[in-house]
Each structure stands twice: as structure tokens, then as C-alpha cells.
Amino acid sequence: MKARVLVTLKSAVLDPQGKAIEGALRSLGVPGVASVRQGKVFDVELDAADPAKAEATLKEACEKLLANTVIETYRIEFVG
Amino acid sequence: MKARVLVTLKSAVLDPQGKAIEGALRSLGVPGVASVRQGKVFDVELDAADPAKAEATLKEACEKLLANTVIETYRIEFVG
């Protein structure tokens, strides 16, 4: 089973990397970009065929490793 | 206008970071993860209200900065 996990900063958290990208785009002459926030995406292949088991595995992976749940949120999407 | 840009490694490219995450999940006792590939996600807010202009701006941003098009591919999704 394939899934995609999207990990993004909570909206209240400042994103210095995003700010740096905004500045770089401006200096590269790319117009009209008001703001940028960067996150992580994980494409995960799971052995389990059962969606409930797969979801439990992914939640455990996010809570333990993929996301810092103090400042980040994660969203699990099953693919195909 | 809001958009999400997903940047992922081309499938033929080895992902050492993904391999490291697989190993870490195994040692953390998270079962049943066959493979992990990591990418980047950018949530971008654009001044332009015209979708065509916004798409052109995002393509330029990806080609110039957000993606290394030699080893990565990018996908643009408009949000809301």
C-alpha cells in the first residue's frame, strides 16, 4: 500500500527557511510571490494491505520520527 | 492566490535520506514500512489572481530555485 505524508509547520510558527526562499526569489527576479512556507513530504510504501493497519503504522511513524508534533502538523493521504 | 508545490526526487535517483528514515523507523520498532522517499513541499501565496500568470510565476520559481530539475521533478497544485 502506498501513502503520502505531508508535514508542515503550524501556522503560528515562524518559518525562517520560507522567508529566505522569498528573499532569494525576489533577488532572482521572480515577481509576485507574497509568501513561502516550506514543509516535508514522505512517499511511504507499506507492507500492510489493510488501510486501518497502514494508517496506524503511519501515525506511529509520524509521532515517533517524521514530524515534530510540537511545531509541526502532519496529514496522511493514501495513494492509488 | 494560494498554491502548493511538491518537489520529489526522480524515481531513478537513490534517496539516502529515505533509506536513513527506513532504518530509523525499524530501530524505533515501527513495523511494516517497506520504503520511504523524502521530498519538499512549498505553500506559496501569490499576488496574481490570474491562474495563468500564477502558474508561470511558480514554474519560474521552480526552475530557478525550488527544484533541482536534474534530479527532481515538481508538481504545482492550486489550493482553494
UniProtKB/TrEMBL annotation, chains A, B:
Gene3D superfamilies: Phosphoribosylformylglycinamidine synthase subunit PurS. It is found in: Cytoplasm. Pfam families: PurS (PF02700). Keywords: ATP-binding, Cytoplasm, Ligase, Nucleotide-binding, Purine biosynthesis. InterPro entries: PurS (IPR003850), PurS-like_sf (IPR036604). SUPFAM superfamilies: PurS-like. Pathway: Purine metabolism; IMP biosynthesis via de novo pathway; 5-amino-1-(5-phospho-D-ribosyl)imidazole from N(2)-formyl-N(1)-(5-phospho-D-ribosyl)glycinamide: step 1/2. It catalyses: N(2)-formyl-N(1)-(5-phospho-beta-D-ribosyl)glycinamide + L-glutamine + ATP + H2O = 2-formamido-N(1)-(5-O-phospho-beta-D-ribosyl)acetamidine + L-glutamate + ADP + phosphate + H(+). The keyword Cytoplasm applies. GO terms for molecular function: phosphoribosylformylglycinamidine synthase activity. Its EC number is 6.3.5.3. It is an enzyme of class 6 (ligase). Part of the phosphoribosylformylglycinamidine synthase complex involved in the purines biosynthetic pathway. Catalyzes the ATP-dependent conversion of formylglycinamide ribonucleotide (FGAR) and glutamine to yield formylglycinamidine ribonucleotide (FGAM) and glutamate. The FGAM synthase complex is composed of three subunits. PurQ produces an ammonia molecule by converting glutamine to glutamate. PurL transfers the ammonia molecule to FGAR to form FGAM in an ATP-dependent manner. Belongs to the PurS family. Part of the FGAM synthase complex composed of 1 PurL, 1 PurQ and 2 PurS subunits. This is Phosphoribosylformylglycinamidine synthase subunit PurS. It comes from Ancylobacter radicis.
